[in-house]
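Possible race condition, two jobs.
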Amino acid sequence: MEIAAFLIPTDSSYSSAKSVPVPSGGPIKRWSAPDGSLQWAILTDKNPLGTVERFYHDVPTVEAERYVGGLRKQAWASMTAEKGVYGGWKDVPVWYLICTEDRAMSPARQRHMVQLARKAGADITTRELDASHSPFLSRPRETVAFVSEAMKVLVQGQRLYST
């Protein structure tokens, strides 16, 4: 199950997946934080968005700022490692929630990655939700409904395969 996520091919990485041309949406650029650590930012029209605007723009401000405070740095290797990466989406049915108000990963990029994965043989069911990159915070009921629907279908499918 994926929610506004990159579909990384086997022996590829986030940094190589970001270079996939997309019909529209801002490019992903690397930038250095004030402490010198490397991070990733999504830029739209060359203007970097703040973290709240990027991930939580549809969450109440006080709550969004609390979540920003809980974010942790991600290991650089998780962004660049390619050898040994397994694109499991090609081998199992996947449900993907496209967040149409996502400012961290444009809906166009999400749809494009789904399209490329389908062309590569993936079995992907998509749903769309008018939500930011964090629908589990801004639209929890709808996100739970998506997960519940996916689990119901996937469990039923599993029973069909095992009989």
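Job #2 (started ~2 s after job #1):
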Amino acid sequence: MALLLQGMYDSNALFSNGLHATSSTFTVGNSLAGKVMVTNTPQVLFSLIYLFYNSLFTGMLSTAEINSLAYCRKPLRVSHPQGAQRSTYYLQLPYRYAIPLMVLSGLLHWLISQTVFLVNIAVFDTNSVKQPDRAVSACGWSASGLYTVLIAGLIMVAVLVGFGSRKYHPGMPLTTSCSRAISAACHPAPGDDDAPLKALMYGVIHQTEDGHEYVGFSSHEVKPLKGGRSYGRNLST
């Protein structure tokens, strides 16, 4: 915050010299390795944040993919497709999401590199002789770069909140990545043993003589779930 306030002294000239214009410098000991570590620490922190950010999108989109089977018949995505099955996404996310996220990650890493960086100043005398004892090595930072990173970070948060506010279609209990819940929906009805190789849909797949209904994935016709009713999710129990 102190760095941010210090960079506000001339708001008119904040972006006039570009993102990499040095607003101030600070030193961290006399070790060059220490300065390099300090200037690259924000890169490591952003990488960790991006992993968490990406995992949230992966969880929401995988849930949306499973949830879509309640109203649209689709084949499964597997590593080694057979029959009507489809292959998994190369980047674990649909390309319309994965590519923008990768571009955003690269852009933020570049912006951070323009915000905190290593400054080395070599000093020469009037005869163009280098003066090693007068050289300056420090960590520099850019106020305009810092503002740009903060704005980009706020946009990332707004996109995540907006995407997370979208509602899933009704018709299927949320399973997210819970293997137990997914497994409970994967017990086929009698006569549908090759269902994994075909296009599937989620709904009521079997009804017993006493009227009890079971739900799950099936390649046959299914009936949609109705609110307020109880269903079984495992035909073996």
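The helical segments are 2-6, 32-67, 95-113, 143-164, 179-184.
Logs attached separately.
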